[in-house]
Amino acid sequence: GSKRRALRLPLAAGKGERNMSDNWVVQNLENALATWNEKLAEIWHLITQSPEQFKGGTIWNVVLLIHDTMQAIGLALLVLFFVVGVVKTCGSFAEIKRPEAAAKLFIRFALAKAAVTYGLELMMALFTIVQGVISSIMSAAGMGAAQETAEIVSAIESCGFWESIPLWAVALIGGLFITILSFVMVLTVYGRFFRLYIYTAIAPIPLSTFAGEPSQQIGRSFLKSYAAVCLEGAIIVLACIIFSLFASSPPAVDPNAAAVTQVWTYVGELIFNLLVLVGTVKMADRVVREMMGL
């Protein structure tokens, strides 16, 4: 499908698509970059999934059961919020007798009842619209992969045993950082899915607040927050695409410098770029909330 075609991630440092060096330092860097590129590809794939497809739909089925249970509670709260709203907004019983006031109250109750009953369909329609935006961004721009340069590899392989000892430390620390950052980024994307599930499960309760004028602000805030969680996917995709532009041009390294200096410069700049990407992905919710004024 179009979603599959949008996944244009050449895992240049991925497993099975590169010639593995015999040097341990090079292998360590290659493995770390392979892990990063695999996690980036996993994010690219996860973002295109809907809650129904995620993990085979098992979690979604449980969420739907909880939603149905919450719907019964939401309908009961609907009446409560409606009565409280009528008491607070109408000064006397004579006011309610006026046709325009009665019609207004009836329409509010009917709309709130529809929001609780068809809230799931409304939320999934909003999610589908945002997924369309994400797919458009993905099809407009592909994503590259991080990989080590030939100059770095040749500089490392030309070192003797004693010269390569500091390189081991640099490669080990750099590889560990890159691996940790890749898992942190994937956890952020998984966290977005869990929030989508939580919002869907409890939706009938905050949506029932639309029945009363004093409490309707709760329902509005809920819908805005849900829209923000959906839009986080677009921010994450944009961050990954921008990062791929950094990754497509490897860090500049002085070929005349010592091998340790070259590796340290390369790893340091790469980790900095990865930190910027991870920071942007983790702040996706904050970015969306600032855009929407939440």
Features:
294 residues; mainly alpha; 12 helices; 77% helix; disordered N terminus
Structure description:
The structure is a single chain. The chain has helices at 2-6, 24-47, 58-89, 93-97, 99-117, 119-140, 150-157, 161-202, 204-207, 216-248, 259-282, 284-292. By secondary structure, it is mainly alpha-helical.
Question: What is the overall number of helices?
Answer: 12
What oligomerization state is this entry in?
single chain
Envelope shape:
elongated
Total E-strand runs:
0
Largest sheet: none
How widely separated are the two ends?
A: 35 Å
Tell me the structural class. Answer: mainly alpha
Approximately how much helix is present in the residues? over 70%
Mean of all residue-level pLDDT scores: 78
Proportion in β-strands: under 5%
Radius of gyration: 26 Å
Order of helices and strands: HHHHHHHHHHHH
- The poorly predicted ranges are 1-19
Outline the fold blueprint.
Blueprint: H1 2-6, H2 24-47, H3 58-89, H4 93-97, H5 99-117, H6 119-140, H7 150-157, H8 161-202, H9 204-207, H10 216-248, H11 259-282, H12 284-292
